[in-house]
Write a structure and sequence with these properties.
single chain; 367 residues; alpha/beta; Purple Acid Phosphatase, chain A, domain 2; 2 domains; six-stranded mixed β-sheet; elongated; disordered N terminus; hydrolase activity; transmembrane; UPF0046_metallophosphoest; membrane
Length: 367
């Protein structure tokens, strides 16, 4: 920027400096300085040095008020810029078919990204429209279909405004993804279909558009239909894809980066359950202790938690939370895989939840 062309420059300052600098101020130094470099001579002349200081100070005074807001805006933009393509370390494991799947997290991977931002780790960005916060609506919860959606009339989905699907579609090819997308479109749900993956969705990392038309969230917080949803497919080491090979402390560290205590989240959507709630299979608790602690550490309790993974634990549960009204939040294990078994045809059907009240609605199933 040229100070002399600025409309804010003082005319008197320009006249003063021009008058001084037009004099031969370097003349009496020519005999003592053999170097003809005018730049070096200038610093041996007190008058010229004084003029240089005046020019510098004048520039600072004139452009300071204009450059400061610019720098502040740049800093604000840098802080608020969303991170939409961040990974936590080098995530690679072996799937159930022996193939390489970039969907496992180890303790070493977490340590290598100690300073990384993880509030928005969307591998599949959502384009859901923004609406008013927490409008009244009905959320339909279903997961672990494992291909059963292809059986006509087996899964009876209630009407609703928002579909929440925490994984295990078993999409292995683009054709299967399109078939599942068509099934989703035919459901009596008026609003978005929000999905995260499960451990059996081993082919999804390599598919460009696994389920056309669906809002697919992976390790991110995204507002959909006025509700802020955190979604993740990762579970403790079990089988298949999206596995966490972490000790309890590392697990808590991992989830705390995705869900820091000040996170504003209305709905938790994870494939796996937390430790000790809806997680028992074969006499063992298979839930994630780090995930449990991270959610219970949230300063604002979520309204609803929807998970799957452990098929025999389908149904509604309560999860203790110190800041939730009544001391607990509703947790729905939405797995429907048992719907094919005798004695479970009705009880293992999808659930409908009224929001923002977060209470289950009577099952009025559509044909």
């Amino acid at each position: 920027m040229r100070v002399w062309t600025s409309p804010y420059a003082s005319t008197r300052v320009r006249v003063f400096i021009n008058a001084i600098t037009t004099r031969n101020t370097l003349g009496y130094y020519n005999n003592n300085i053999t170097d003809n470099n005018v730049f070096l001579k200038m610093f041996h002349c007190p008058r010229v040095a004084y003029v240089a200081v005046v020019i510098l100070v004048t520039q600072i005074i004139l452009i300071g008020p204009h450059i400061t807001p610019f720098l502040q805006n740049k800093r604000a933009n840098k802080i608020s810029a969303p991170v939409t393509q961040t990974k936590i370390g080098d995530v690679e494991a072996r799937g159930s078919d022996g193939g390489s799947i970039p969907t496992a997290v180890t303790k070493a991977a977490i340590s290598s990204t100690a300073g990384a931002s993880s509030s928005s780790l969307a591998l599949f960005p959502s384009t859901a429209p923004q609406t008013a916060r927490r409008p009244p609506l009905t959320a339909v919860c279903i997961s672990d279909t494992h291909g059963l959606y292809q059986e006509p009339g087996l899964i009876k989905v209630p009407e609703g405004d928002l579909l929440l699907f925490p994984g295990d579609v078993e999409v292995g090819t683009a054709a299967e993804g399109r078939a599942f997308s068509q099934w989703l479109e035919g459901l009596p749900v008026r609003g978005p279909r929000v999905l995260t993956w499960g451990n059996m969705d081993t082919a999804t990392p390599g598919l460009k558009d696994p389920v056309p038309g669906a809002t697919i969230l992976v390790n991110t917080i995204q507002e959909v239909s006025g509700y802020r949803i955190f979604a993740s497919p990762f579970t403790p080491r079990f089988a298949g894809a999206y596995q966490l090979d972490l000790d309890p402390d590392s697990s808590f560290e991992y989830w705390s980066r995705l869900l820091p205590p000040n996170a504003d989240v209305d709905i938790i959507l994870t494939h796996g359950p937390p430790f000790g709630v809806a997680d028992k299979t074969g006499g063992q608790n298979r839930g994630d202790i780090g995930l449990l602690k991270a959610v219970q550490a949230l300063q604002k309790a979520p309204l609803l938690w929807v998970c799957g993974h452990i098929h025999e634990q389908y149904g509604e549960h309560r999860l203790a939370h110190p800041r939730a009204p009544g001391g607990s939040i509703l947790l729905v294990n939405s797995a429907v895989f048992y719907v094919q078994r005798p004695g479970h045809q009705q009880s293992a059907q999808p659930r409908a939840v009224a929001l923002p009240e977060a209470h289950l609605l009577p099952r009025q199933l559509s044909e």
